[in-house]
Write a structure and sequence with these properties.
Strand content: 5-15%
Number of domains: 2
CATH architecture of the largest domain: Orthogonal Bundle
Shape: globular
CATH superfamily of the largest domain: Fe,Mn superoxide dismutase (SOD) domain
Radius of gyration: 20 Å
Structural class: mainly alpha
Order of helices and strands: HHHHEEEHHH
Bound molecules: manganese (II) ion
CATH class of the largest domain: Mainly Alpha
Strand order of the largest sheet: 2-1-3
Number of strands: 3
Number of helices: 7
């Protein structure tokens, strides 16, 4: 069983030191691993501690979601596809840093596009792995079940909608259950690539990878079978925990929905 790692680097092996020799490392589970840029710095450039994104280990074996998702798919999906998004997000931030040092922003628009794509890919895959578990499935309980009932009219209606949302993505993308903090309600969402077509403020609770790389080796063109099978892998404890965390978000834009909810 691989060890757990946070999404941002906190590995003691990469502890950095500032000029006074103090370590930058933070306790395990901390959000940011600062480091100093290694390249020569211009006299006027302010050093900025940079966090690096890292590939989190899976909390189960590659084959643990079979027969619903094959171990071969999981190994490639996590170790190749997801890792590439992590690496590219870090590379893009480094390129932004280089440009900023030179005050050369000629590539900034394409770098912003690359960052949105790769960082969003990292976020969604990291959530997706945690949304699943061996012997998962069943249904949510408690307050999440109540919210699904309230906002979709029942679990079966929600399941049918999110399955269809995922199966009808044009091109590459994701189906998602999101929490919308202004009206304090649940919504489904079709995400194009990794980063488009999301409502601002929407927080992903449950995501379904609808890229061909998520299913093609096993399901070929029978993608609807994949979008059905994935319901046997859901870790509702994780999804419920995300729901409770998301409900604490306050965008500080009052009077933007009615009726106003207090919780
Ligand atoms: Mn993917």
């Amino acid at each position: 069983m691989p060890g757990r790692r946070p999404l941002l680097e906190t590995s003691p092996s990469r502890i950095g030191h500032d000029r006074a020799g103090r370590e930058h490392s933070q306790p395990r589970g901390g959000a940011i691993k600062p480091r100093r840029a290694a390249r020569p710095l211009g006299a006027t450039h302010k050093e900025v501690p940079m966090a690096r994104y890292v590939l989190p280990d899976l909390e189960y074996d590659f084959g643990a979601l079979e027969p619903h998702i094959s171990g071969h798919i999981m190994e490639l999906h996590h170790g190749k596809h997801h890792k590439t998004y992590v690496d590219k997000a870090n590379e893009t931030l480094e390129q932004m840093d280089e440009g900023r040092q030179k005050r050369d922003f000629s590539r900034i628009a394409s770098l912003e596009k690359a960052l949105a794509f790769n960082l969003s890919g990292h976020v969604l895959h990291s959530i997706f792995w945690k949304n699943m578990r061996p012997k998962g499935g069943d249904r949510p309980k408690g307050e999440l079940a109540h919210a699904i009932e309230r906002d979709f009219g029942g679990f079966e209606a929600f399941k049918a909608q999110l399955t269809e949302v995922s199966a009808t993505v044009m091109g590459s993308g994701w189906g998602a259950l999101v929490y919308e903090p202004i009206a304090q309600r649940l919504l489904t969402c079709q995400i194009y690539d990794h980063q488009s077509n999301l409502s601002q403020g929407g927080i992903a609770l449950l995501v379904i990878d609808a890229w061909e790389h998520a299913y093609y080796l096993q399901y070929k063109n029978q993608k609807t079978a994949f979008f059905q099978a994935v319901w046997n892998t859901w870790n509702w404890d994780d999804i419920e925990a995300r729901f409770h965390a998301a409900r604490k978000v306050n965008l500080l834009v009052p009077h933007a929905a009615e009726p106003e909810r207090t919780a």
